[in-house]
């Protein structure tokens, strides 16, 4: 309780606690990935029923982005199941066109996840107006080899450095429920918090075990009471800790949110989460819909965040100015003060 209380105070210093950003993710290139991420239905190594598809056309992206905006989403994300962008000049050009169209015509924030990119590829995306690049570290450095072998932890960190180097914001987080321990959650957050620049966006995913993936089988075999079985309390603790040590980041509830009860989601908002993925699908998993999510936010006195609306340090400066002008003081961080 003390942790979430402190996280809520921190959240109010840097963000408007009544605002939650609605984000929508479109799978623009499905399946056929050569990597062996044990949790992923899009790996070509596993029989999950996901059929490989080519990169979608611009018109399909336009239609999906328009629908997302009409329903209240202010960030539009696009994911392609690739290991990297090596030898994909045509694909990169087409994706840059998608990003530019969304920026110019809809004025939405844009984010893409395309696997590993180098500096030159990142520059192409930057020139198109890309807001953020998603590249998750997935889990702790210690647990990572138990989940993936085809890409190193440092490969992931290098891609994040490259996108930040050219001025693109980093969207990087991970997946909880991969058979990791509480110590892995600490290590995972430490890696994010000690980056040269904190992620602008920090997605927290809850594993959705997909039949046919090795992770689904491994998780099903964990004994009752194992500290490697994810409990909701661990998700809440991770969000609250992230808010305390990365106060300006937007913390996003991503895949697996539909498995949470409404009151659990509210607790996540109270602990510092201020964005959710909503819409029709979350890549290859289920997703809560716009109507349902907007009704939930309204019920709790919250509202969707506008595009490109960031409080961050400005929120802290605003509160300081208010204190000087009116003599108002924020409540003490001590629970005994309330």
TrEMBL record:
InterPro entries: Aldolase_TIM, BATS_dom, Biotin_synth/BioAB, Biotin_synthase, Elp3/MiaA/NifB-like_rSAM, rSAM, rSAM_sf
Gene Ontology CC annotations of this record: mitochondrion
Pathway linked to the protein: Cofactor biosynthesis; biotin biosynthesis; biotin from 7,8-diaminononanoate: step 2/2
Biological processes per GO annotation: biotin biosynthetic process
Protein EC: 2.8.1.6
Cofactor(s) annotated in UniProt: [2Fe-2S] cluster; [4Fe-4S] cluster
One Pfam family of this chain: BATS
Cofactor note: Binds 1 [2Fe-2S] cluster. The cluster is coordinated with 3 cysteines and 1 arginine.
CDD domains listed in its UniProt record: Radical_SAM
Keyword Repeat: no
UniProt keyword S-adenosyl-L-methionine, yes or no: yes
A Gene Ontology molecular function term of the record: 4 iron, 4 sulfur cluster binding
Domain Radical SAM core residue range list: 18-248
Enzyme category, top tier: transferase
Signal peptide boundaries: none
NCBIfam families per the UniProt record, alphabetical: bioB
Entry's family note: Belongs to the radical SAM superfamily. Biotin synthase family.
Name this protein carries in UniProt: biotin synthase
Protein's organism: Candidozyma auris (Yeast)
